[in-house]
Amino acid sequence: MGADLPDYYFRVRENGAAVFRVDTENRQRRIEMDQIAVINIKNGEVKPQGDRVLSEVDISQIEAWMAQRMALLAQRDIDDIHRAVDYLNITTQWVQSKASDEQLIGITDDLLLAMHDLRSLLVRKKADRLMSGQDAAE
Question: 17 vs 13, 111, 137, CA distance in Å?
């Protein structure tokens, strides 16, 4: 069982993770997890646990995990945006085909304000890109 387990375990937290070194090479053959650090993914801070000094291997593993985690979170952000586009399309279809007047009264102003805010920001960002010549591919 020990050969199948990684040397490190990262317990994901809201802004990062708690880092544990996994040990199966002990007398009882039990899995022991020794917390060695806490990571803040937003600012890149790594705090060793207690008076511990992290080894180069520890730091290397932590940095590799942080890079993978940031890539995963970035991909999730893009997936969320694609889902938002789908929701907008589904909402449009609902408004056209199913929504009652009472339902529309309850959501129209909120939707219009949110869409106006989004549209204004998208137009401004696109104009900035066009002015700097970065939007040539579109």
Answer: 5, 36, 38
Judgement on whether residues 38 and 77 belong to the same structural domain of the protein:
yes
Residue 3 has pLDDT above 60, yes or no: no
Same domain, 47 and 106: no
pLDDT band at 2 (very low <50, low <70, confident <90, very high): very low
Given this model, what pLDDT does residue 1 score? 44
Same domain, 104 and 79: no
In three-state secondary structure terms, 110 is helix
Work out the number of other CB atoms within 10 angstroms of the CB of residue 39: 23
With tokens 């809201």, the residue in question is 14
As for how many domains the chain has, the answer is: 2
pLDDT over 70 percentage in the chain: 94
